[in-house]
What does this fold into?
Amino acid sequence: MVRTKVPATQLKAEEARDAYHSLSHVEWAFRSLKGMDLQIRPIHHHLEDRVRAHVFLCMLAYYVEWHMRKDWEPLLFDGEPQGVANGKRRTRRSREGHPVMSFHDLLADLKGLTRNQVLFQGAKSPVTLYSTPSPLQQRALDLLGVSHAL
It folds into this structure.
């Protein structure tokens, strides 16, 4: 049961319930900011402009993460209700057969993508060499709409 002081004529019971459940998203966002994903730790600023800039950058980082999680939902455990019989949590695979993992683990996997500047002996300018993405890495890049060779 959710109790509110807002009159029923202004807020229906379903809307009150939905508003209450949306609080969990705010709590999750705060944990994400301070916890394992973004690892934003307290920074002690004393000037108002610096405090505002710090809060802005924290929120911007969270906003980018939120969009990445939405785009990567097929590859993450996120977005699936508990108890789905043949769901991602049980099979540990996406519908396409890719491994499903946490956001943190997917970022760690993407760290293997490299761009190297190589200067061959006798050459006047370096050549850029890109690593070849694994199928999972390529799918993650495709879902974001970005190319590895930037």
Observations:
- The chain has five helices and two strands.
- The CA atoms of residues 70 and 79 lie 8 Å apart.
- The chain has a mean pLDDT of 83.
